[in-house]
Design brief:
This protein has 2 helices and no strands. The chain has helices spanning 6-27, 32-51. α1 runs antiparallel to α2 (32-51). The radius of gyration is 13 Å and the shape is elongated.
Length: 56
């Protein structure tokens, strides 16, 4: 398995942090739109990590 690039690592880290923020917001009965924003950010970070894969 190839080592992730620094950009991929940052994107994966941000996706994990945003997923944790969604869980935290839902558990604290936070605003639904804030969870939606974090969810969209998580999806975009994962997509960016996939699209920025290291070339062989």
């Amino acid at each position: 398995m190839a080592k992730p690039t620094p950009l991929q690592f940052r994107n994966i880290l941000m996706a994990v942090l945003m997923a944790a923020a969604v869980v935290w917001n839902i558990s604290r009965d936070g605003q639904w739109w804030l969870s939606a924003i974090f969810g969209v950010g998580c999806v975009l970070a994962i997509a960016s990590a996939v699209l920025n894969k290291r070339e062989a």
